[in-house]
């Protein structure tokens, strides 16, 4: 049995279309993989402690090198984890500087999946910036899937940051990464699971 971590994005959940597609594909094609899809806190300032606690409670995730799939904000967090613990990551339309993007989200929100109300405050940006990985120790440990039609994030930021990584750039698409399920065999090969 091997373990794989999936990190969803901001305002998302384990019930998101991508998370569920990932779970279904691995259940069908790689039943020996135990997929972990934690519900990440809506509060950006709490996510680091949550991830640290999750990895401490699940040492099997890092025992043979962390393997993680991260979407959007989950991609930003996946980069942080791989830089801290080693391993490999597949990033889907990853956020590169979410502490800049979320400045426009300061205020009250409701997670559309969980209906949990929460607030974003300016201090959250400092906590998020502490997780930044401007220089990657091992860029070859990343496969980055980008679509140029991403309406939420400028794909060129990720293209620049991960230029020494394995980049897969598709014209068009959107932030959800259209036809994501078609990428799952490539994702499994890259993660060697």
UniProtKB/TrEMBL annotation:
UniProt xrefs under InterPro entries: AB_hydrolase_fold, UPF0227/Esterase_YqiA
Domain of life: Bacteria
Family annotation (Pfam families): UPF0227
Protein name, entry field: Esterase YqiA
UniProt source species: Salinimonas sediminis
């Amino acid at each position: 049995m091997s373990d794989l971590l999936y990190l969803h994005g901001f305002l998302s959940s384990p019930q998101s279309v991508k998370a569920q597609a990932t779970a279904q594909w691995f259940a069908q094609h790689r039943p020996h993989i135990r997929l972990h899809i934690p519900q990440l806190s809506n509060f950006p300032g709490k996510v680091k402690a949550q991830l640290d606690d999750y990895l401490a409670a699940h040492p099997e995730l890092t025992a043979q090198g962390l393997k993680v799939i991260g979407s959007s904000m989950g991609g930003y967090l996946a980069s942080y984890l791989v830089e801290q613990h080693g391993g490999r990551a597949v990033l889907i339309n990853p956020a590169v500087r979410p502490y800049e993007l979320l400045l426009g989200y300061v205020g009250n929100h409701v997670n559309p999946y969980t209906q949990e109300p929460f607030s974003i405050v300016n201090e959250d940006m400092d906590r998020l910036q502490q997780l930044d990985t401007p220089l990657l120790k091992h860029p070859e440990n990343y496969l980055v899937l980008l679509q140029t039609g991403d309406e939420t994030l400028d794909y060129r930021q990720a293209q620049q940051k991960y230029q020494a990584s394995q980049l897969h750039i598709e014209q068009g698409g959107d932030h959800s990464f259209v036809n994501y399920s078609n990428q799952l065999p490539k994702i499994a090969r890259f993660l060697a699971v």
